[in-house]
Amino acid sequence: MRRLGDLETEIMHRLWQWNRPTTVREVVDDINLRRPVAYTTVTTVISILFHKGYVVRTREGRIWVYSPAASREAYAAALMEDGLEASEDRPAALVKFVENMSDDEVAALSEALRTVRRRPGK
To answer: Could you tell me the pTM of the whole model?
Structure first.
C-alpha cells in the first residue's frame, strides 16, 4: 500500500473524522475554509481513491456519497506492514521501530500484544 498524497490525505482525514457518508461538495467546502481547491480537482481525487479501494460510494438520489473503505487505524497498520516487508530482517526492523517509540507507545504496544495473545486461536 502506498502512502496517500497530500490532497488524498486531506480528503481521507475528513471522511475518517466525519464518519458518515459525505458528498464531494461537503469536502470541497471544508477544504476551501483553509485554502482554495477546485470542485473538479476533489472530484477527480475522490474518484481515484474509489478506484484504489480507499473509499466506497453509494448513490443518494442523483449524487454519490463517499465513506472510507477502512478505518484510519487499518490504513496506518497497512503502511507499517509495508514498511516491515521492505526489510530483509523483520525482527531488526521491529527493534528499530520500537526504539523510536515513546514510553506511552511502548506501553500501548505491550497491551496490544497481550490482547492479541488472549484471543482464541493464538
So the answer is: 0.83
Report DSSP state, residue 23: -
Between CA 60 and CA 8 the distance in angstroms is 23
Per-residue pLDDT of 87-104, as tens digits, reads 999 999 999 999 999 999
User: Residue 58 in 3-state DSSP?
Assistant: strand
Question: Distance between CA atoms of 7 and 9, rounded to whole angstroms?
Answer: 5
Phi, psi torsion values for 55, nearest 5 degrees: -130, 155
Q: Which residues pair with 59 in a beta bridge?
A: 64
* H/E segment holding residue 56: strand 55-60
| Separation of alpha carbons 30 and 53, rounded Å | 23
CB 39 within 8 A of CB 25: yes
